[in-house]
Amino acid sequence: GYTVLYSIRNKLYKHLISLDIDFHNKHQVGDITSVIMNDVETIYSLIAQGFIYLISDVMTVAAIMTALFILNLRLAFTLLITVPIIIYSTKLIGKLLRKAQKDVRQNIAQLTSGVEQNLSGIKTVKSFSGELAQSSKVSELSEKTRNAQIKAVAISALHFPIMDLAGAMGMALILWQGGLLLTQNIITLGVLMAAVTYAGKIFGPLMDLSQIYTTYQTAGASLDRVNTFLENKQEVDFPAEGEESGENYDIAIKNLKFAYDEDTIILENLDLEIEQGSRIGIIGKSGAGKSTFIKVLGRQYNPDSGEILIGGVPYQNYGKNEFKEILQILPQDTYLFPLSIWENITYGMEDKTLADVEDLIRKLELEDFFAKFENGLETEVGEEGKTLSGGQQQAVAIARAMIRDPQILILDEAASNLDSQIERKIYQYIKTDWAEKTLIIVTHRVTSLDLTDTIYEVRDKGIFEIDRAEIELAGWDRISS
């Protein structure tokens, strides 16, 4: 049982983390967590409790019915009259229970999501005195979950009196028919007593089998949710064996189109060429499509049409590891794991050590910055990096991207919270030591554009080169609002 539980949970988790960003944007963390933990556990309960008794109960029922048929055909068929009642009532209750349990699972998922969101945003909750409002919200979700559970238990409870009634009916029919046969001297008293004994023994395993079916319906609701997640396919697919990179890392984008749906076209007829070693700034109003463009470039989304070449190679031909070695995107929203600073910087890179991190920090001239922490690079950052400020988190995240030494680094508002002095040091290192590497900066900050050679504005579903003087003339509000 536990082996099956481990296997299902592992398979589900590996599948979920392999899915695209789009899937995770559409599903709440609490819902995913609930499926992995609660629904898989419910499926395990069916395997552990149900299937263990299934074979023995079936064999017991078969043996008793065989004995009854040998004893007397009329009494055996009399007992079988109750079977349709048992089957129909069990199927009806099972159908109702499956629907009720589906509601329970959905409510548990919503409750889990609500608690997770409130605890994740506890600083905001307390800053705006939202404790009462959030407590009320969780209480409401908890009450809905309780009501759904009570309904499911009430439906399940109907099973037992119906089975008891069927058992009593079967026993009464055996006594009635057996009595008639006894008065007609067709059977002896011993045969009647044996038939009554068999009838008394058969309803125990029949009830167990009926209970296994209702348990299956309970687990079936969870199985439906697990299967729904497993049916999601990875849209952005990397080949098992990708092509090797070309002689350079020039980017060529040709006639690119991307839409979230038929009515929401974000990018269309987009053409752009970026030579290796370029310093590119990307600006644009909120909602213009800057982040979407970066996500398509970073293979988080597939373009609907057009092509993107890196080093003359269609970028979808690169294997996953090869592509990540070439291009790294650093988003504005930083996530740090509850590890030390240096372990966060080397996350996913088993070949990197503390010494490698110290070497990078020296090159960035950020020794003083990290020395301020109580234990330096050994400082634990806490859950989601909550012990660090927003700027400190971004500094760690930038170091995490840079230690991977990609050929193309994309900063999507990734320095928005950085101290200007720290930002200048990082950009100075990129300017001098990363001369051969391509840097793309998506930003609303004027100072972040100082490092760039060429600036593009995303607007009207396309991307257009814009002069610095034009930015100053038009006013910064044009591209930052």
> Low-confidence parts, pLDDT < 50 over ≥5 residues?
none
Mean pLDDT: 84
Name the CATH architecture of the largest domain.
3-Layer(aba) Sandwich
The radius of gyration computed from the alpha-carbon positions, rounded to a whole number of angstroms, is: 33 Å
What separation lies between the terminal Cα atoms? Answer: 57 Å
CATH superfamily of the largest domain: P-loop containing nucleotide triphosphate hydrolases
What string gives the helices and strands in order?
A: HHHHHHHHHEEEHEEHEHHHHEHEEEHH
What is the strand arrangement across the widest sheet? 6-7-8-3-9-10
Describe the structure.
This protein has 18 helices and ten strands. By secondary structure, it is of the alpha/beta class. It has two domains: 229 residues, Up-down Bundle (ABC transporter transmembrane region fold); 230 residues, 3-Layer(aba) Sandwich (Rossmann fold), CATH 3.40.50. The protein starts with a helix and ends with a helix. 31% of the residues are buried. The mean pLDDT is 84.
Task: Provide a short characterization of the protein structure.
By secondary structure, the chain is α/β, with parallel strands linked by helices. The chain has helices at residues 2-18, 21-26, 29-71, 73-80, 82-120, 122-127, 131-157, 159-183, 189-230, 290-297, 320-326, 341-345, 354-364, 367-371, 390-402, 420-433, 468-474, 477-480; strands at 251-261, 264-274, 279-283, 305-310, 313-314, 327-330, 408-412, 438-442, 454-459, 462-466.
